Amino acid sequence: LGRGDLIAHSYDTMHGVEVDQGRRCSVAMWFADSMTSCSDQTNPWYSMAAAEGDAIAQYNHAQNLRQINPEKSHLLMTAAATQGHFGAQNDLGATYLARYLKDKIGCAADLDEAERWLNESALQGNVRAQSNMASVAVERGCNEAAIKWQELAAEQLAEPEQALKLGLLY
């Protein structure tokens, strides 16, 4: 891009920026489809697209509903994860893992579900899912597998904390 150029994308476009030198300046503008959406801070386009089965919209709508309607959020997250959405798979697996780890007396079925969804996401290269899979492996007593998953996460250089987690595993 040159000076004055602009890129616009829709809500369902995944994006990331790598700046090798110089400095990065970001300007984010959010647009809504109506004055009501702006004032209520709602995203009705997510619910419409989610109802039509769009996995990305299901994931985003689930994120929006997480606090106000956990049951519907879970159903939408599961629908998106089932369609292969790596973010939904990670978030769903992380939810099961957190439930398992709560008080360290979790249900084995929760750990199995965590592993199922996190593995799907991790195999797609999701750095957080790979790190979460390391946690699942630790819970299962498989330190070698934990190191393997955490190495995959750290090698991406996406999040510095992944290298720290790897060092702690060693």
Concise account of the structure shown:
This protein has 9 helices and no strands.
Please estimate the helix content. Answer: 55-70%
End-to-end CA span: 43 Å
The portion of residues forming beta strands comes to under 5%
Q: Indicate the structural class.
A: mainly alpha
Mean pLDDT score: 88
Radius of gyration: 19 Å
Number of strands: 0
Order of helices and strands: HHHHHHHHH
- Enumerate the spans where pLDDT stays under 50 for 5 or more consecutive residues: none
- What is the approximate shape? flat
Sheet of most strands = none
Number of helices: 9
Walkthrough of the structure:
There is one protein chain. This protein is an all-alpha fold. 62% of the residues lie in helices and 0% in strands. The longest helix has 16 residues.
Keywords:
170 residues; mainly alpha
Element layout with pairings:
Blueprint: H1 35-40, H2 44-51, H3 55-65, H4 70-82, H5 86-101, H6 108-123, H7 127-139, H8 143-155, H9 160-169
Helix pairs in contact: 2-3, 3-4, 4-5, 5-6, 5-7, 6-7, 7-8, 8-9
